[in-house]
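REVIEWER CHECKLIST
Item 1: Sequence provided? yes
Item 2: Single chain? yes
Item 3: Sequence as submitted:
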Amino acid sequence: MRFLLVEDNAELSASVAARLSLDGHAVDRAGSLAEAEDCLAAASYDLILLDIMLPDGDGRSFLARHRRAERETPVIVMTARSAVSDRVDALDTGADDYITKPFDFTELEARCRAVLRRRGGAAQTQRSFADVVFDPLAAVVTVAGESRDLRSREVRLMEIFLAAQGRILSKEHLVDRLFSFSEAVSDNAIEVYVGRLRKKLAGSRARIETVRGLGYRLTEG
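Item 4: Structure as written out by the authors:
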């Protein structure tokens, strides 16, 4: 998944981005509302983590504009303000969740997973496709009763394919979903990750097909 982190505290921003990157997420960092708007103009995101007090304005104004523009990207507000009225205000403005600083990284990760599940309409963690059971929290796929461990980027790639079953996904789209602006991506990076995931799905009816000149799609064979 690709996240946009809007936070002006450089140390906190770097720590949060590093922690989420360990889970295989691509994280773009913005230190101001203006930088956040530039990022949104250049890429699409699965989740936005938004600070309230920023050097060029109030994050709630950004959130309100985000919703008025009918952008559906979920937003988790991060702030040191702990009053109930502040939480209610953020949620009424359009936030999907709210976390108070200082926070534990495991709680932030759990809130991210919960918001993404709600937006995806999935109440359960495990997902099934063909004869494969996928558990992103455990980072495994189960084929014919055999559990196979996935690396973090393979987990995110599996999530992307499952969210677009049967649809052709271009290499450019997969790069956009898997990598941040700051990451150097080689020309064959996607081929490498798709190849690794195919090996983990070997022996199942789940197929990642190459559509020549267009990209890849997940199908049941």
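Item 5: Key structural point noted by reviewer: The longest strand covers residues 206-211.
Item 6: Recommendation: ____
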